[in-house]
Design a protein that fits this description.
By secondary structure, this protein is an alpha/beta fold. The chain has a single domain, classed as P-loop containing nucleotide triphosphate hydrolases (Rossmann fold). Helices cover 37% and strands 23% of the residues. The chain contains 9 helices and 10 strands. It has a 6-stranded mixed sheet with strand order 6-7-8-3-9-10, sandwiched between helices. A 4-stranded antiparallel sheet has the order 2-1-4-5, with helices on one face. Strand 9 and strand 10 form a beta hairpin. Helix 3 packs across helix 4 and helix 5 runs parallel beside helix 6. It starts with a strand and ends in a 5-residue tail after the last helix. The chain binds adenosine-5'-diphosphate (ADP).
């Protein structure tokens, strides 16, 4: 049995007493070291889930546990050490004047000794293939490179889960590809849970499991292949199945048709 890392139990959330519920009885588990994609149309509640995962928000109903510990005002500081987040806008995430200063910043705040810091800067910049840019000023980097540095800065703190909340949304196709490749390498090489949050079905293909959100509820929880098979229903909730998945489906149907013909 896989060990549960994050547990949402009947979680409901609203931004104010007068406001509508934006999450309604949401329950799911994220297991240790797995890659889960959370997908849903804009406004379906994905970012709210991300903020609940590191105690930026607290639910009015239900419970969230991380490593078995309920997320509360008291436990939140410990929990934030385990949860690393990368957001949409790469420009809002830089504090250092060079790439390596930036990666060092979070570690300095946590009192990581200097020797260890130097070692980790090397490790994480290698992991995101940015080792040649240590002394570059962040504003000179492309969008994809900036997000890779943002990922490195989070990895340097050694979180148990890395959450990317629409981290590719502002990037061009090349930058998007870079990030998805980086994320996939990290997942292969580290013992870390990975949660990628997106409204683009194209980005869920490599995840082990997909949680599909619709209007604040869990609509489906399945493998990418199982989710893609529901392409008509997905379209109704505002999600377009990528062309490549439709093509694969058509080819499969075609193959079946050919092999069912007598071979004479
Ligand atoms: P997603 O990430 O899927 O786009 P969000 O979690 O950002 O969805 O938003 C879910 C719902 O909550 C939306 O209807 C959104 O308008 C609302 N919402 C998000 N943030 C706030 C806020 N700070 N105050 C009030 N409503 C909010």
């Amino acid at each position: 049995m896989r060990e549960i890392f994050i547990e949402f139990r009947d979680v409901s959330f609203r931004y104010g007493e007068e406001q509508a519920w934006v999450l309604k009885n949401v329950s799911f588990n994220i297991y240790k070291d797995e890659w889960v994609a959370i997908i849903g149309h804009n406004g379906s509640g994905k970012s709210t889930i991300a903020k609940l995962m590191n105690g930026l928000l607290f639910p009015q109903k239900g419970e969230i546990r991380i490593n078995g510990v309920p997320v509360t005002e008291e436990s939140v500081w410990d929990i934030r050490k385990q949860v690393g987040m990368v957001f949409q806008n790469p420009d809002n995430q830089f504090v250092g004047t060079t790439v390596q200063d930036d990666v060092a910043f979070g570690m300095e705040n946590r009192g990581v000794p200097r020797e260890e810091m130097i070692k980790r800067i090397d490790e994480v910049l290698n992991a995101v293939k940015m080792q040649d840019y240590r002394l570059t000023e962040p504003h000179r980097l492309s969008g994809g490179q900036k997000q890779r540095v943002a990922i490195a800065s989070v990895l340097a703190i050694k979180p148990e889960v890395l959450i990317l909340d629409e981290a590719t949304a502002m990037l061009d196709p090349k930058g998007r590809k870079e990030i998805m490749r980086t994320v996939s390498d990290i997942q292969d090489q580290n013992e870390i849970s990975l949660i990628t949050i997106t409204h683009d079905l194209q980005e869920v293909t490599q995840a082990e499991r997909v949680i599909v959100m619709n209007d604040g509820e869990v609509w489906d929880e399945a493998t990418p292949r199982e989710v893609f098979a529901k392409k008509d229903a997905l379209r109704k909730i505002g999600l377009d199945v990528p062309f490549i998945a439709i093509l694969a489906d058509e080819l499969k149907k075609n193959d079946l048709m050919i092999t069912s013909e007598p071979l004479n």
